[in-house]
Amino acid sequence: MLSYTLKRLALAIPTLLILIIVSFVLMHAAPGGPFTSERELPPEVLANLNAKYGLDQPLWRQIATYVWGILTEFDFGPSFVYKDRTVNEIIAQGFPVTLTYGAISFVVAVLVGVTLGTVAAIRQNTILDYFAVGVSIGAQVLPNFVMAPILVLVFTLWLGWLPGGGWQGGQWEYIVLPVVALSTSFMASIARITRSSMLETLNLNHVRTARAKGLPERRVILRHALKPAMLPVISYLGPAFVAMITGSVVVDVYFSTGGIGKAFVDSALNRDYAVMMGVTILMGALTILFNLVVDILYGWIDPKIRY
Amino acid sequence: MVANQHKMEALADRLSEEDPVAGRSLWADARRRFFANRAAVAGLGILLVVALFAAFGGLIAQWSNEELDYAVMGAIATEGAPSLSNGHYFGTDDLGRDLFARTVQGTQVSLMVGLVGALVAVVVGTIYGATAGYVGGRVDSVMMRAVDILMAIPYMFVLILILVMYGRSMTALFVGLGLISWLEMSRIVRGQTLSLKNREFIEAARATGVPAVTIIRRHVVPNLLGVIAVYATLLVPLMILTESFISFLGLGVQEPLTSLGALISEGAGTIAYGTIWQLGFPLLFFCLTLFGFFFVGDGLRDALDPKDR
Fold first, then answer.
1. Average confidence (pLDDT) over A253-282
2. What is the residue extent of each domain of chain A?
3. Do B76 and B248 form a contact (C-beta atoms < 8 A)?
């Protein structure tokens, strides 16, 4: 187990380095610099700017400085557009918001998805089952950027129950719509995966044994069937996490929650490369970390897997 | 004995006269299974309608996608609603442009993005995966490790990075989508190649001295076509989703070009003014396209990959 964890870590670190270097080189090779604008800057000013941001150094040295800054001080450097703000400040402002509703969405998607899938499997071919299957097929074509406007249309404009945007320090009525918009399609996928793997598990020998020795059905499912049935769900969590991080950008933009996604889109529109790279690398690091956790969890749940 | 011989001859005549039973090839078998699947046929029908709409919708549009209708401008919520009399079948957008023509254009762009993305995935993914799987050994593990690393990167952010840095053109979009789309495909192709590679006919080819490139081209790839077709069909909606996602954020194709995602974004931004058709029609075609591809893809998988059922 330990050696496996170390092996995964050994793969995670070069992945992160490659991500940093690739985005840095992409940024460097792009036509036009960060200070290109309609108004031509005098060459002396441009030279000074380049010197201030270290852009006059050779490429390898720039990369080395950048990586070193991130590794030692967690410093992503200054923003290219907002002269008085660093990337760290911009990220620190939006990240707690994204983390709050992102974590809630993730928990909701997993809990509701697993419950729905399990119930559908136990009550196979009943109304409940058809409902669960129908929802999961429908949600395939209802990604977050389709859910968000529909939710606002129904719950804000027609029913007037919930505010259609804003954050207000995270009061619950401002969290509901973002969470629903973000979690629905994942909830549906998790429900579908849980249902099919639960159906398979319920036919296994050890479940039959548990039933034969007279355990109550609730205990059979919670104690004996749920754990092995969770394996495909857990391997889906990695991709789901990536997709959720991506989806949070839509939520931030559409619901004006003020999260990190908004900062990313703004920086993309302003060509603020430093912020874009900072967010990309942070999200990449989170993704890699989460995949590591999932892999370890997988090995812990299924001791048959030996590395 | 003689009578028997007559009988035998009669029987032989009858056998030789009767049409030989036509053998069913893998593809004929798959076609039969596909058309027996009601959801898949419905999906195919939906796709046909969407394709016809994208191809010939422009002919029945009364307005071009760039014209502004000054008669409805300023009163879109009341005058710009869908109507047959002024020729705006789907209504107009908030600038007074005909939404029918815009939806036709958006559907064209979205379909094209999806198909090109899937095509890149098929070509690059097949070559990469088949090579890695066939060569095997250290080459294989290096090539697949590279894919692992690329898959761990949050590609949407990198894609947006590429789009912003190299101008938000269609070319940049295709390159960016192409860069990410082949990863999953190469994994699938590699897995299939690994299981094919030790089969007798490949061994026979190798024993007779056929070069590796020819074996991949003539013997491996044709046997992968079924799997490739299935995943290519399922990739198209994913590419459309990705492009729509980026366009929804306003980072995708630029005006006057539009895509279904960009139209949904515009519609989503204006629902507060009561112009719900701006969201409704693009959304309808978006969902129809995705449903069509998902159903056809699932049907193809069931038809071509019988062991998966």
1. 81
2. 95-258
3. no
A27 touches chain B (CB under 8 A): yes
> Of A239, A246, A251, A253, which is closest to residue A280 (Cα–Cα)?
A246
Query: Which residue in A has a C-alpha nearest to residue B286's C-alpha?
Result: A141
What's the confidence (pLDDT) of residue B21?
A: 66
Query: A160 CB near a chain B CB, below 8 Å?
Result: no
pLDDT at A13: 81
Greater pLDDT, B16 or B54: B54
Asked if B294 and A141 come within 8 Å (Cβ–Cβ), the reply is: yes
Check residues B108 and B255 and name the one with the higher pLDDT.
B108
Whole-prediction pTM value?
Answer: 0.79
CATH number for the domain spanning B164: value is 1.10.3720.10
Question: What is the pLDDT at residue B77?
Answer: 66
Q: Residues A12, B153: contact at Cβ < 8 Å?
A: no
Q: What is the nearest CA distance from A208 to chain B, expressed in angstroms? A: 24
- Which of the listed CATH numbers 3.30.310.50, 1.10.3720.10, 2.60.120.620, 1.10.10.10 matches domain A95-258? 1.10.3720.10
ipTM: 0.75
| Mean pLDDT, all residues of chain A | 80
CB distance A157–B261 less than 8 Å? no
- Closest Cα to residue B269, out of B64, B72, B76, B62? B76
Determine the residue of chain A that is closest to B157 in CA distance. A280
Distance (Å) from the C-alpha of residue A170 to the closest C-alpha of chain B?
23
For A204, counting Cβ atoms within 10 Å of its Cβ (0-12 exposed, 13-18 middle, 19+ buried), the class is middle
pLDDT tens digits for range A11-66: 778 878 887 887 777 777 766 666 666 666 777 777 777 777 777 777 777 777 77
Q: What integer pLDDT is reported at residue B308 of this predicted model?
A: 44
Contact A249 B261 (CB under 8 A): no
Task: Give the model's confidence band at B309: pLDDT under 50 very low, under 70 low, under 90 confident, else very high.
Answer: very low
Q: Which two tokens stand for residue A121?
A: 């499997």
Q: Provide the pLDDT for residue A111.
A: 92
pLDDT, tens only, A271-285: 777 888 888 888 888
